[in-house]
Amino acid sequence: MEFESILTENNHGIFRIIINRPKKLNALNRNTIEELHRAFTEAKESNEVKVIILTGMGEKAFVAGADISEFADFSLEEGRKLAAEGQKKLFDFVANFPKPVIAAINGFALGGGLELAMAAHFRVASDNAKMGLPETSLGLIPGYGGTQRLPQLVGKGRAMEMIMTAGMIDANQALQYNLVNHVCEPEELIEFTEKIAGKIMKNSLVAISAAIRAINANFEDGINGFQVEINEFGSSFGTEDFKEGTSAFLSKRKANFPGK
Fold this sequence. Notes:
Blueprint: E1 6-11, E2 14-19, H1 30-45, E3 51-56, E4 61-63, H2 76-95, E5 101-105, E6 108-110, H3 112-119, E7 122-126, E8 130-132, H4 146-154, H5 156-165, E9 168-170, H6 171-176, E10 182-184, H7 189-201, H8 205-217, H9 225-236, H10 240-250
Parallel strand pairs: 2-3, 3-5, 4-6, 5-7, 6-8, 7-10
Antiparallel strand pairs: 1-2, 8-9
């Protein structure tokens, strides 16, 4: 599949999606969002893809925000449509993706960039990364899930402060806030993230998909996450991965999960 704004590569089950607009600090525009949706859809449908690593081209930026020039003169209705379509096509799509998605944050992750990183299932940052939601400095609020996901990750008070001040935090502060899981040197970022992906791929990806659904259920209004967990747990007993996993354990050998 050919893209203008992103690059993709599959390396033994690890599917890298690289936002490739370095001159614009990898800022998100409509075309990039559309291409990311297509790339994630491709990854979802491919049996060759096990884990996705999402990152930006270069060391300056993961995604430095949205392309403001695209919406500076939008009306109220156009603004609502922009947020709704973006969340449906990309941010919620990534958050509920059935395969593990890791954001490798290289440099700036601001506005829509931080919102995209937060939509991933977890985050690894280079030690030169800077993160923030500066929308209130433009007379806006975060529109791609930032007001919802940031409090879930860092707590209400810290989220309020970050959004109200429109300030940035560095990688180590993000680690302290639980916004990222790990911090490493920029040149080690992809290798470090791929090592985590390798550990994930040793386990049942069918079970991991079920775990993603169960964990996400806890953050959905009107959904009983415990009941979702019970249902997903029960469904696991009918999978070939369960049969292989328990058989391997009892036989004291490594499991070779069929992914079914």
